[in-house]
Amino acid sequence: MSAEETLILVKPDGVARNLTGEILRRIEAKGYQIADLRMVTPSRELLAEHYAEHEGKPFYEPLLEFMLSGRIVAVRASGNRVIEGFRSLAGTTDPTTAAPGTIRGDLGRDWGLAVQQNLVHGSDSTESAERELALWFA
Ligand code: DAT
Ligand code: MG
């Protein structure tokens, strides 16, 4: 099996709502390996690097504030096509329209806030995965 790896984050809403176990269960049930895992209270600098592509967008500041609002569980997951596979497990960005059966579709709520509190992050490409894993598992 290929050793592809991705960065998965259980965001502060997922940790606060006690959904870490349920999210890890879905990752493992799909057959992906949890290669490393840590509980992180990230700095603004780390989050700014992580979300650099979104700087200047209207949701950027609320996004950073949200990500600073509590603890995050960072996961290094591995498996064949895990980058694409986890994005599929997570569902699309907006929890209201994310497909049932996905993490965001089943468990995510739209709180009507300036930022989508959508429980999880997953790297979107091999380049992003490499960059993000280096940030969160330095
Ligand atoms: P994803 O997390 O699905 O890869 P993204 O990288 O486009 O989505 O955006 C990063 C996060 O920013 C996303 O998880 C939630 C928030 N976000 C994105 N687009 C948004 C929007 N239009 N309104 C509010 N929050 C948004
Ligand atoms: Mg993204």
From TrEMBL:
Pfam families the record matches: NDK
GO biological process: CTP biosynthetic process; GTP biosynthetic process; UTP biosynthetic process
Keyword set, alphabetical order: ATP-binding, Kinase, Magnesium, Metal-binding, Nucleotide metabolism, Nucleotide-binding, Transferase
Binding site for ATP: K11, F59, R87, T93, R104, N118
Keyword Cytoplasm included in the entry's annotation: no
EC code(s) of this entry: 2.7.4.6
Gene Ontology molecular functions: ATP binding; metal ion binding; nucleoside diphosphate kinase activity
Active-site residues, record numbering mapped to chain: H121 (pros-phosphohistidine intermediate)
Cofactor(s) annotated in UniProt: Mg(2+)
Residue intervals of the Nucleoside diphosphate kinase-like domain: 3-138
Record's protein name: Nucleoside diphosphate kinase
